[in-house]
Specification:
The protein has about 280 residues and is an alpha+beta fold. The chain has 2 domains: about 80 residues, Multidrug-efflux Transporter Regulator, Chain: A, Domain 2; about 180 residues, Jelly Rolls, CATH 2.60.120.10. Helix content is about 35%, strand content about 20%. The protein is built from 8 helices and 12 strands. The strands form 3 sheets. It has a 6-stranded antiparallel beta sheet with strand order 4-5-6-12-7-10. Strands 1-3-2 form a 3-stranded antiparallel beta sheet.
């Protein structure tokens, strides 16, 4: 039986494909594509209008995921592990889904322990009930700004959403870092923990990703851009940071940030005291 080749689609500028094009190529609905993104299988670039743009590598990964689901009958966790073993996704991407699920369970348990309704917490955080419910069920991930507001409601900080630490240790190897997915395209890796007066992170920010809404908290912050660039706004003043730049500010200043570039931004980000 002959196979009909998928039609060649004219990609947008610079080789990117729109979500509708990818859906036709891999025979998946846009909704399913977004679900695979939450699993960490793809990291589509976002335009300023928030449209997703996919690379040929994304298409390759999605085709293999479809095969593993439909032909071999694997579940989501098994598919992620298979793709990681094949070198199609990184170990970091494979952990993203588990990390986001942990946050959802933690938030749901905190709300239940305090006897609060979805509507009460959503109102305090300035988000919809549906969005909060989706976060708690690990169907959507929250931005840094949203996580910060939720943490404040429960008298916590974002540090409390990381995996439980093993106590203070002077040396932390890369494989030992505590990791947290803070919204689409934003990965936080904790570089030290325990009884510290500083809270050092390694931030990985995908193109177009960022903090979401503005937020503030007590303390001071220092950033050093290891790779890429970052747009950061302190109230009404905007700055563009590039590789090699350092930046210091008071955390109580309302701030938000995003990666305006076309490649991942890597940031050494230090808060003191550890109230992030």
């Amino acid at each position: 039986m002959s196979k009909t080749a998928a039609p060649r689609l004219a990609p947008p500028a610079k080789g990117y494909l729109k979500i509708g094009d990818v859906a036709r190529i891999v025979s998946m609905s846009p909704t399913m594509l977004r679900a695979w993104e939450k699993l960490g299988l793809t990291r589509p670039v976002r335009t300023r209008s928030k449209y997703r743009l996919y690379t040929p590598q994304d298409v390759k990964v999605l085709k293999q995921a479809r095969y593993l689901r439909r032909v071999r009958g694997l579940n989501a966790a098994a598919i992620v592990e298979q793709l990681r073993g094949q070198g199609l996704i990184t170990r970091k991407a494979a952990r993203a889904h588990d990390a986001s699920q942990g946050i959802g369970r933690r938030l749901r348990n905190l709300r239940s322990q305090q006897g609060k309704s979805l509507a009460q917490v959503a109102g305090q955080a300035g988000i919809s009930v549906g969005f909060l419910s989706a976060i708690e069920r690990s169907q959507m991930s929250a931005s840094v700004g949203t996580l910060r507001r939720l943490a404040r409601i429960y008298d916590l900080n974002i540090l409390d959403f990381f995996e439980a630490s093993d106590g203070y240790q002077p040396l932390v190897k890369p494989r030992q870092r505590k990791r947290l997915q803070a919204g689409p395209g934003v990965g936080m890796e904790l570089l030290a923990w325990g009884n510290t007066v500083m809270e050092p992170h390694l931030f990985r920010v995908a193109p177009g990703a960022g903090s979401g809404d503005s937020y503030s908290h007590e303390g001071e912050e220092f950033l050093f851009i290891l790779k890429g660039q970052l747009d950061i706004a302190l109230e009404d003043e905007a700055f563009n940071l590039r590789s090699g730049d350092s930046f210091y500010f008071q955390s109580k200043t309302q701030h938000h940030w995003r990666n305006p570039g076309k490649s991942e931004t890597l940031i050494l980000w230090i808060n003191t005291p550890p109230t992030f």
